[in-house]
Amino acid sequence: MWWRDVGTLRIVAQVVAVAAAFAFLGYLYRNLVTNLRAQGIGTGFEFLARPAGVNVAGSGFEASQPVRSVILLGVKNTLALVIVGVPVLTVVGVVVGIARLSSNWLVRKAASVYVETLRNIPPLLVILIAFNAVLLPLPTIDNALHPLGVLVVSNRELGVPWLVPREGSGLYLLVLTVALVLAAGIWVWRTRRFDSTGAPHHRVLWSSAFLVGVGIGAYFLIGTPFQVSLPEVRDRIVVGGMAARASYVAVLVALAMYTASHVAEITRGSILAVPKGQTEAANALALTRFQRLRFVVLPQAFRIAIPPMINQFLNFTKNTSLGIAVGYAEVTLVTFQAIGNGYPAPQMILILMGVYLVFSLTISALVNILNRRLQFVTR
User: 276-306: per-residue pLDDT in tens?
Assistant: First the structure.
């Protein structure tokens, strides 16, 4: 009988569970719509075209611009944290994780203090310390410091030199793109040569030398397509170079350092999870400590470390919402400001949830591609 078949009962149970979930969501939606209409609040998204009614410091955004523009600005600011923060926290976390296994007592203990201190402090507190104890005591913008004559340091903005495009910059970028493709081809060629002959591939040296050589040669042949722009203070505003708000720097550094402490533990555990026989085999081949780590231990450790690292990348992305504590205009802050100006909270929160969902799914998809590339291939 079908009601005695375990497989059939499992399918029926799953169908019932899904139907119950959709029924519950339908009930919540109807309840929400009823309450909104009772209070005279619309359920559409036409308000996105209305003036936002808020100014965003340091961005040039004006209150007369539409709500959708301020949301896009918040998404852009959040993306600026993610693009810079994820590589930084990965590098710092991996280095500290390796340092925790160092044979040098001082290096090992320093890494342990870093990890045990930061990972046991709430990230919000780390942000507040970075902003209030490190950046706010800096000189005001009127008395900004100019270290080496190329930097601007103040408690409102920090400026660094940057490249400004000139005539021929488009052609130069095209040449660099072609050179990058050719460098990748050189990398593949050297790898295949190593696989077929066993001769040292030196693929990093060959590819890098080609790319750097073409870049330097094209730079002078085209006629300096970029020039260095130095930051300076004019009318209490940093012009030239590239400037970052102190709130951005505080959130970026604090969250990167905090999340790196968790990545360091993942790295340490992954290295310890590599079978000891692999290290012994590397020693038998007379590999140096660096070669053993580079060619034997880390490639296997990363296969273990990547999945839990994805969670830390997602945690970093979601924790950027804590930037609201220091006034950084990421997507959560501008959403709450719009709600405070009378725009419907349910729709705004739904948009906010969708933004973080897109961020999370994108990061997961990209890192999972790397994870699949690192896995053992079975035939």
Answer: 888 888 888 878 888 888 888 888 898 899 9
Looking at domain 67-120+244-374, which of 1.10.3720.10, 3.30.1300.20, 3.30.70.20, 1.10.10.10 is its CATH number? 1.10.3720.10
Q: Which run of H or of E encompasses 23?
A: helix 6-38
| Cβ contact 57:326 at 8 Å | no
Residue ranges per structural domain of the chain: 2-43, 67-120+244-374
Closest CA to 169 of 215, 213, 226: 226
The secondary structure of residue 159, as a DSSP letter, is E
pLDDT tens per residue across span 44-64? 788 888 988 887 877 778 888
Distances (CA, A) of 297 to 46, 89, 111, 263: 56, 21, 20, 17
d(CA 17, CA 345): 30
Q: By three-state DSSP, how is residue 51 classified?
A: strand
Global pTM reads: 0.85
